[in-house]
Write a structure and sequence with these properties.
The protein has 162 residues and is α+β, with helices and mostly antiparallel strands. The protein contains four helices and twelve strands, in the order E-E-E-E-E-E-E-H-E-E-H-E-E-H-H-E.
């Protein structure tokens, strides 16, 4: 089988394919090890020659075999956390990963205006709501145009900036 590499530290007992499938080598045939999903992570339990069992996440095994020497996290390019093919994984630092997937990664800036004149800009709808003493749903409703009145309870207009 092409595109398979032995998992380091297991003396050829296990190998992982290019697509992220883990196999156990037996004398007569190879058998696929099914990864189990445990708290949003796919894990595999491997046993070394001394009988010691250790649990690895699938991303750890991919990093150990295909990205040797890489100490960074692996990011799934297509967003599917179940796709562990080498083409889909990209080494990335914690800081870069946090900017892409963290709490503020999807926030949009909000503009507070009165009569078409911009008064203040906020980083997010939650920040605008916090500084103007109203719920963030009130701000989001105005920004998305989901309410009849374009004015919020404080008398200003709120809209997405950019």
């Amino acid at each position: 089988m092409k595109n398979q590499i032995d998992i380091p530290g297991y003396a050829g007992r296990y190998y992982i394919t290019y697509e992220g499938d883990v196999f156990r080598r037996w004398k007569t045939k190879d058998s696929k090890i099914i990864s189990h999903r445990k708290s949003h992570t796919y894990v595999v339990r491997l046993t070394d020659q001394q009988g010691n069992r250790k649990m690895y996440s699938l991303s750890q095994l991919m990093r150990m075999t295909y990205f040797q020497g890489c100490t960074e996290n692996l990011y799934h390019r297509n967003g599917l956390r179940s796709d562990f093919s080498v083409n889909n994984l990209q080494p990335i630092t914690k800081q870069q990963l946090g900017k892409m997937t963290g709490g503020n990664s999807k926030s949009r800036p909000v503009c507070k205006s009165k009569g078409g004149k911009a008064i203040t800009f906020y980083h997010s709808a939650r920040q605008a709501a916090k500084f103007n003493f109203m719920s963030y749903q009130t701000v989001i409703g105005r920004c998305n145009g989901k309410v009849k009145s374009k004015y919020a309870p404080d008398g200003y207009e709120y809209q997405w900036d950019g």
